[in-house]
Amino acid sequence: MFSGKPNHERCVWALFLFGLIGVPSLYFSSTISIDTVNMLGRYLAFAIAAIGLDLIWGYCGVLSLCQALFFALGGYAMGMYLAHHGGPPGSVDVNGWKIPGCLFVVYPAGVGETEAQWTVPWFWKPFYSLTATLALGMLLPGLVAAFIGYFGFRSRVRGVYFAILTQAITVAAWLVFCKNDMKLCGTNGLTNFDTVAGYSLTDPGVKFSLYMLTLACLIAVFCLCRFLVDTRLGRVLVAVRDDETNLRFFGYKPYMFKVFVFALAAALGGLGGMLYTPQMGIITPEYMTAKWSILFVIWVAVGGRGTLSGAVIGALGVNLVYNFLTTRAPEAWPFVQGLLFVGVVLLFPKGIAGLLDLIRFKRLAKRTAEA
Description:
By secondary structure, the chain is an all-alpha fold.
């Protein structure tokens, strides 16, 4: 299974096997708690979004600082579905009277507070259905990315200018989502989630099932993206990254490939957000801040961009280190995070994946010399 694969990809498949076999074994033997399994499920959701960023940045050479926006859009889509079905039984109707924890009240002329009508905006209603939510949670980020990418890439906005543009759009979206007038609960975000598809989110079995579902989605996303980058499309993307001008000379339209990959990366970000929200229990505009945009970049950079495996290794590795340090020495984490960022730039620009490949190369060179 692993013959001929680079070390970093072998490492990722080993992680997948451990997630499929090792984690359930540890859980059912009571070695780890359901809270630990739930935490790992959230980190797997981060890895799905990180793979999307690696597609557009690692293979296309476009640094996007709005992957956090797409992640949050998917999270809000799932949050609106969960909020529809949260709270005491009978408090929410398909036509929308009240959303627990996020109440919208309408006072018609001459009507007092006691006679006020609870209602939700029209754009909440499609998210009452789980099927519609799953579709919209990936479609909306993809459409937003396609809109941004079409006008940005066709105008040949590239490099640091595109990074600044995407970060500005993310900050603007954060400001919009923080407004109470948007009827998305403002800075408090969406919470008070009780059930998903009719099952209680407090049930350990449901939490474990969400972990397994997230892991299955991560493996499927990884295999799909690996298939795409190994095809002719992947070679064109690398050509866009390495010499876009020359590619245009041969009759290609690089901006079309960029728009496609940018939209695909956004859809994967939305998928990660949808899987993250029920496991976290809350979604707020905080996930659209600049900090989260930079974190996605750090995960991919530390793991090794342009490998797909690096996105998974970076997202899981950095978050596990973060969890370890913040529970034992919280004041040390900012310094470790800064050292990671500087170390990637100065010491190992190809990330952990590059280091693993270097180890394999040295071993092969040693064997060749001995032979």
